[in-house]
Design brief:
The protein is α/β, with parallel strands linked by helices and 259 residues long. It folds into 2 domains: 193 residues, 2-enoyl-CoA Hydratase, Chain A, domain 1; 48 residues, Lyase 2-enoyl-coa Hydratase, Chain  A, domain 2 (Orthogonal Bundle). 47% of the residues lie in helices and 17% in strands. It has 10 helices and 10 strands. The strands form 2 sheets. It has a 6-stranded mixed β-sheet with strand order 1-2-3-5-7-10, with helices on both faces. Strand 2, helix 1 and strand 3 form a beta-alpha-beta unit. The structure holds ligand T3D. The site of ligand T3D has 23 residues, from helix 2 and strand 6.
Length: 259
């Protein structure tokens, strides 16, 4: 397995575990880390059935590494976003296997929005999300202006972006920004169980349902019904569908192979 310097990637039992590994900087993102996350997400897609992102130490990710910023005024942020953030974010959001962000602590700025790029966000109760950008004179980026209004509605999205306050995990879950907030004591076991569930599921059905749900934002009802018919047609050709039906009739749990 490839080794990285700012993250670690372990693949076991169909689960790719990508850990952001700069704990002394609260896993802040530098150029190397952005490239490594993109590379690891692509590797996970090829070698696993679910990808989990989490952070080492007490934070998930504190966003852009501000000590990396040098002379802030001369930074070409547009280039950094286009060339470095976008490939990282798309490698996660367009990953063909299900993705989970297991948010163990602070998720700030681009770190919050990296989590939102995952399909499912599970956060520990002590974790929080912050659109920290305006605190340093920036606007939300890294997909924040895309995901926030879709996940928690326009009013909450605008407030989160303008005030840049810490949103506790339980509020984030209540507002629909994330899937679940779980007590700290149960957090680790919980996301591992959820990852194992997906790693043993019908991988092709997951892939197609992900594209259908994403496409629904830009489709009218007719186009969406048409897309569902096409993608369900593909699901119907899988061994997992046959196994699912046989297992149901046999009154046993299905054994999905992911194809
Ligand atoms: O290319 C571009 O620049 C454009 C893209 C921008 C995208 C963005 O993400 S902009 C937003 C950047 N992130 C932030 O503004 C958040 C900065 N961090 C914080 O506000 C706080 O650290 C937290 C609220 C996340 C956590 O606070 P706390 O009190 O728990 O921890 P702390 O003491 O502030 O941080 C601990 C250490 O991590 C500290 O280092 P030290 O003093 O122990 O040596 C701190 O400097 C370091 N750290 C935290 N965040 C960052 C960081 N170092 C570099 N960059 C960081 N973002």
């Amino acid at each position: 397995m490839k080794t990285y310097s700012t993250i670690s990637l372990e693949i076991e039992d169909g689960i790719a575990l990508l850990t952001l590994y700069r704990p002394d900087k609260l896993n802040a993102l530098n150029a190397q880390m952005r490239a490594e996350i993109a590379d690891a997400a692509n590797a996970a897609e090829r070698g696993a059935r679910v990808l989990v992102l989490t952070g080492a130490g007490r934070a998930f990710c504190a966003g852009q590494d501000l000590s990396d910023a040098g002379n802030a005024a001369s930074l070409d942020l547009e280039r950094v976003l286009r060339d470095e953030y976008v490939p990282m974010l798309r490698a996660v959001s367009e990953c063909r296997i299900p993705t989970i962000a297991a948010v163990n602590g602070a998720a700030a700025g681009a770190g919050a929005n990296l989590a939102l790029a995952a399909d499912v966000v599970i956060a520990a109760h002590s974790a929080y999300f912050s659109q920290a950008f305006t605190r340093i004179g920036l606007m939300p980026d890294a997909g924040g202006t895309y995901w926030l209004p879709r996940q928690m509605g326009a009013a909450k999205a605008m407030g989160a972006a303008l005030f840049a306050e810490k949103i506790p995990a339980e509020d984030a879950a209540a507002w629909g920004m994330i899937w679940q907030a779980v007590p700290d004591m149960e957090f680790d076991a919980h996301w591992r169980e959820r990852a194992a569930h997906l790693a043993h599921g019908p991988t092709e059905a997951y892939r197609h349902l992900k594209s259908a749900l994403r496409a629904s934002w830009g489709n009218d009802e007719g186009a969406q019904l048409d897309l569902e018919a096409k993608l369900q047609g593909a699901c119907g050709q899988t061994r997992d569908f046959k196994e699912g039906v046989v297992a149901f009739l046999d009154k046993r749990k299905p054994k999905f192979e992911g194809r």
